[in-house]
Design brief:
The protein is an alpha+beta fold and 232 residues long. It has one helix and 17 strands. The protein has a five-stranded mixed sheet with strand order 6-12-11-8-9, with no helix packed on it. The protein has a four-stranded antiparallel sheet with strand order 13-2-15-16, with no helix packed on it.
Length: 232
């Protein structure tokens, strides 16, 4: 009986050690997978002629349910109005962040948007509005002035990690290209001004560098400015 009990204990210890080993392997595999997901990936965005596009916005569409939420700054972003222009004319904000629209011109402006992501109106005013506008819906918001038609600005409200391309048309994002997708948007794109292009990076791999993905988007020439001279 003593021999049987000792054999049972040995078998039990063996299975216990085997189970612990399997758990360690699974945890290690999970850590390796998470590290792979966090790899920096370079996105190259060009027009259809192959020219780099600055001021394009790339946002990660994460398929990882374990992705952490981003911290939203309590400080509002500034979109000023200078010489009958929005300055800057493109800003990237996080979902839930606010934007303030000061008027630094010596004339009044009437700022508004009819975009699906945010509809608002700041009627004729000078100086600084009473309070900022909160942008709590993911998407593109096109901003205009009801007095000066050529004043057009864009606000990209990001839900996930997003960046604006540099002068070389590039951004670097942490993502897993095997499962994650990205959305691409540009203020001069030829399709609907609020529509975003969804890209599967598995179909956009560059042959010269396995960490660089190339995406193209069709854009228009910038519209000419006409603000009635100095009449208003």
């Amino acid at each position: 009986m003593a021999l049987l009990n000792r054999n049972s204990a040995l078998i039990s210890n063996k299975w216990s050690r085997l189970l612990k080993f399997k758990i360690i392997i699974l945890l290690a595999s999970s850590c390796i997978h998470q590290l792979a997901q966090a790899a920096p990936v370079v996105i190259q965005i060009n027009d259809i002629n192959g020219n780099p596009l600055s001021q394009a916005v790339a946002e990660v569409i994460s398929q990882n349910s374990n992705s952490t939420s981003l911290t939203v700054s309590s400080e509002p972003v500034v979109m000023d109005q200078v010489n009958k222009r929005f300055l800057p004319d493109l800003i990237l904000v996080q979902q839930g962040q606010s934007v303030v629209f000061p008027n630094s011109d010596n004339i009044r402006h009437h700022v508004y948007s009819f975009s699906k992501a945010k509809t608002f109106e700041l009627k004729l005013y000078a100086g600084k509005p009473e309070k900022p506008i909160k942008f709590d819906t993911n998407g593109v918001v096109i901003v205009g002035c009801n007095i000066h038609d050529s004043m057009v600005g864009s606000i990209y409200v990001a839900q996930n990690t997003a960046m604006v391309t540099d002068d070389k048309g590039r951004v670097t994002l942490d993502l897993d290209p095997t499962v994650d997708k990205i959305s691409i948007w540009h203020p001069l794109q030829s399709n609907s001004p609020e529509e975003r292009k969804i890209v599967d990076l598995k179909e956009s791999l560059l042959s010269d560098d396995k960490h660089v993905y190339s995406v193209s988007i069709d854009v228009n020439e910038p519209a000419s400015r006409d603000t009635f001279g100095d009449t208003f």
